[in-house]
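User: As part of a screening pipeline, I want to sanity-check one entry by hand. Below is the sequence and the SMILES for 2-acetamido-2-deoxy-beta-D-glucopyranose. Please return the complex as structure tokens so I can compare it with the automated output.
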Amino acid sequence: MLLQAVFLLLLRCLASTLGQYDLCKSLVSTDEGSVWEQYACQPKPASMKDHMRIKVDPPGITCGNPPERFCTLENPYLCSDECDASNPDLAHPPQLMQDRERNGLITYWQTVTWRRHPEPLLANISMAWNKSLELTDDIQITFEYGRPTIMVMDKSMDHGRSWQPYQFYADDCMDAFNMQPKRVRDLSPANITRVICTEQYSRWVGSKNEKNVKFEVRARFAVFAGPRLQNMDSLYTRMESMKGLRDFFTFTNLRLRLLRPALGGTYVQRDNLLKYFYAISNIEVPARCKCNLHASQCLLQDGNLQCQCEHNTTGQDCQRCRKGFKAKSWKAGSYLPTPNGTPNTCTIAGSPSGSNCECYGHSNRCSYIDYLNIVTCVSCKHNTRGQNCQHCRLGYFRNASAELDDESVCIECNCNQMGSVHDRCNGTGFCQCKDGATGAKCDDCLPGYYWKQGCYVNVCDEEMLLCQNGGTCYQNQKCICPPEFKGVLCQESRCEAGKDCNAASSLHLSTATLLLCTLLAHLLATLTPH
Ligand SMILES: *[C@@H]1O[C@H](CO)[C@@H](O)[C@H](O)[C@H]1NC(C)=O
Ligand SMILES: *[C@@H]1O[C@H](CO)[C@@H](O)[C@H](O)[C@H]1NC(C)=O
Ligand SMILES: *[C@@H]1O[C@H](CO)[C@@H](O)[C@H](O)[C@H]1NC(C)=O
Ligand SMILES: *[C@@H]1O[C@H](CO)[C@@H](O)[C@H](O)[C@H]1NC(C)=O
Ligand SMILES: *[C@@H]1O[C@H](CO)[C@@H](O)[C@H](O)[C@H]1NC(C)=O
Ligand SMILES: *[C@@H]1O[C@H](CO)[C@@H](O)[C@H](O)[C@H]1NC(C)=O
Ligand SMILES: [Ca+2]
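Assistant: Here is the complex for your manual check:
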């Protein structure tokens, strides 16, 4: 008892040094020996710009092909800068938005200039991770040469299949999006997940004074956790109870839609369009892998982030139970009760016990059998049977890719009625075949056998059982003999010494007549107009 208390103290101490929910399990000594104790856990935040796949649209939006001169808003008459894609020193490709800058040298992606004004200057930046992530701090996009006057940030939670706006940015929200301008601090706890338009990051303050556009995560967390995020427990409690709060910070893809560049605080000046363009030096995305509180590590595997799942869960986001564990027992871990949460470990499948009657969802009725002293499931559905509906009915076999509680857990054997001994099969769906039949369903014949509603041994073939005396083999079933011969393989002459052979010649004749008739029929067929 004391030991346990000491251990718990130690654990709390560890938790506070490691940070909360850093530990998935730990070996605990008890009176019965060592056992694993499990806790809700999550990976540490990381700089996700390192893992993002970035794409810009439309093609040709990146400057430098052909080489182009550009000016700056602050000094529009000094247009000495040049972008040239073929010169590494003057090129501004998209990857410079996610590089690690060294020696204070700022590197940036840059677009073509707004020479085609009044056609809008539009650019999309799509960022994909192929992994569900959860924001842990502000997204920050750094614009060299001024921040856009109109921009939208979108997110996708399903790998880019569907998108939703995340935040609108404009120097005039009403004018650009017909939305009232808001700040995150205007939001109350109840509407913190509202999508807003903000003017905070789009107004002209000089391109050097303020380069960053943010998506505020800290300020939203602070609504629950306090201004210095000192009360994270309160945030985590809300994450559990408030619908949509966790999902609000979850994404697999982000997209920036740049709709109008910085204008320098005035209207567009048509006589110098070379000073209007977009340039981004960095996109910071601080987030953690979403592992449903079932992993404390998230590692790169074959180029993709992958949760290192604990609690007998599996999947990219630990979003299901491992094989051998009951699929329906899966639940995300919970932050509650603080500080260690609840792991919601997957429970082991197929451990029938008398009192705890589990029917894997194939029956909702149990009954007690007095003389056997067991509780058993009644009328198992989905072709299952057994005390716990844990077996397949006769004539069905176990679907290896389905969990025990899956409706398609049992597959019909489908044994060929003619070819198999009965309609049952073994655990991998193989039927028991009659002599000469083969194949998983016994619907095929072994060499030396032919199929005719079942397999029969060949009467004749091209190898061992040859028809003789000019006879021909008909579908391995019989030899068709010339008139003078008979026998299974036409091996016997009809005109053996002392016998009457007239029958044979008359038969010959009738064959000739038959042949003649067939020819005539063919001729008639070709002459008849269709
Ligand atoms: C940016 O993405 C949006 C949404 O898919 C699309 O409608 C728009 O045409 C794209 N813009 C450019 C410049 O590719
Ligand atoms: C995305 O991740 C999954 C799981 O790690 C992987 O199977 C798939 O190939 C990945 N897709 C791409 C485009 O990398
Ligand atoms: C959020 O709610 C507060 C009060 O509950 C309200 O004043 C504010 O306008 C709301 N914000 C939005 C964006 O609806
Ligand atoms: C998870 O499964 C492994 C074996 O596959 C087992 O060693 C471990 O104890 C299991 N954990 C739980 C919590 O059941
Ligand atoms: C086996 O189970 C999987 C997973 O539920 C299912 O997709 C598949 O259709 C099943 N196979 C058959 C033949 O029913
Ligand atoms: C079922 O029978 C096939 C063919 O005889 C065999 O290969 C397979 O291992 C058997 N499967 C089981 C589970 O017995
Ligand atoms: Ca850079």
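Points to compare against the pipeline: The radius of gyration is 39 Å. Confidence is low (pLDDT under 50) at residues 5-18, 351-355, 503-518.
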